[in-house]
Amino acid sequence: MKFFIDTADVAEIRDLAATGLVDGVTTNPSLVAKTGRDFFEVLREICDVVPGPVSAEVAATDFDTMLAEGQALAKLAANIVIKVPLTPDGLKACKALTDSGTKVNVTLCFSAAQAILAAKAGATYISPFVGRLDDIGSDGMELIADIVEIYQSYPHFTTEVLVASVRNVNHVIESAKMGADVATIPPGVLRAMYKHPLTDKGLDAFLADWAKTGQSILNQ
Ligand code: E4P
Fold first, then answer.
1. For residue 200, how far is its CA from the centre of ligand 1 (angstroms)?
2. What does the alpha-carbon distance between residue 80 and residue 43 come to, in Å, rounded to a whole number?
3. What is the pLDDT of residues 114-144, one digit of tens each?
4. Which residues does ligand 1 sit against, CB inside 6 Å?
């Protein structure tokens, strides 16, 4: 399972990339706005830090402008993936960009029907938003199970399931159990994945017992 980091904060990305566990990055207009920085500058920096796929979202809603924006963003770096919304024009842009060799992440997916359309449009990734579905009383993880099952029935669908709008560690665990290809994880959730109280308690006990031996592993 691949881990992408869901942020446009370059310092966070640099810090987490040092773990060696980060396979890519996803951004969106809200995350970019939160940085208060220039979009292209932020993307260049992210692409320098992470060699894996970096999703950059178009801002237009009509096909022609989406295509032009996608082409402009794709020129930034070889690892840029163009993010388009799941609309008729967005999927048309997805098809055109994919046909010209650019990778596309179709975002704002909230149903299995939408995920089928994205796969047929040749998307590299489909981003179902689990947290936002949970927020309205639906079951986000049920959508992931449905999409994984549908895609498995059609081996010619090469679209990867990228679980987005992840809000907690359970979303990541459930995604892994279902065989989702990727989870894009907010920095706080990735850090929370390391945590277990028994790990902290066990380490404290081991350190205390080791100190009693008076030994040092490095000064033999
Ligand atoms: C990533 O591709 C999505 O834009 C992001 O995961 C959305 O997360 P949110 O629902 O927490 O804003």
1. 31
2. 8
3. 999 999 999 999 999 999 999 999 999 999 9
4. 6, 26, 28, 107, 127, 129, 131-132, 164-165, 184
